[in-house]
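Morning run. Coffee first, then this:
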Amino acid sequence: MRKTMLVSLSLFLICGIHMPASAGDFDGSKELLCACMRVIECGPDGSCAEVPAEEIGIPEFLKINFKQKTISAPQMGKNQNPSRIENLEHIDGKLILQGAEDGYKEVRDGAGWSMSISEETGKMVLTESGNQVGFVVFGACIPK
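And here it is:
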């Protein structure tokens, strides 16, 4: 009897620890923390190269607050202005977020961005396009 309970408890703990996130975790109802794991930079000549995120100012983590419609970088502190989510759509099992940023004052670095998050897995792709440059960021999100 004790051995059966021990096996049952072990299976419960293993299944509980490895249980995948539920579909509702990525539907825009919960805050998310997303890791930016791979960044590709492309130029107008069609050349693309992987670059370190910190080299081009992309934070390692992004916090998405759906109630406030903002995306921020928690590691950058309170001095950083969050990005505003201008559009949010559910399309073909993906949560699509879009916005635009002015960048730094006195610098012509404004850009548009779009983020796609799988409502099933939390895998994320973020694209940003600016003046003669584009970025594709691959990552994954978890509920905060």
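The helical segments are 2-17. Good start to the day.
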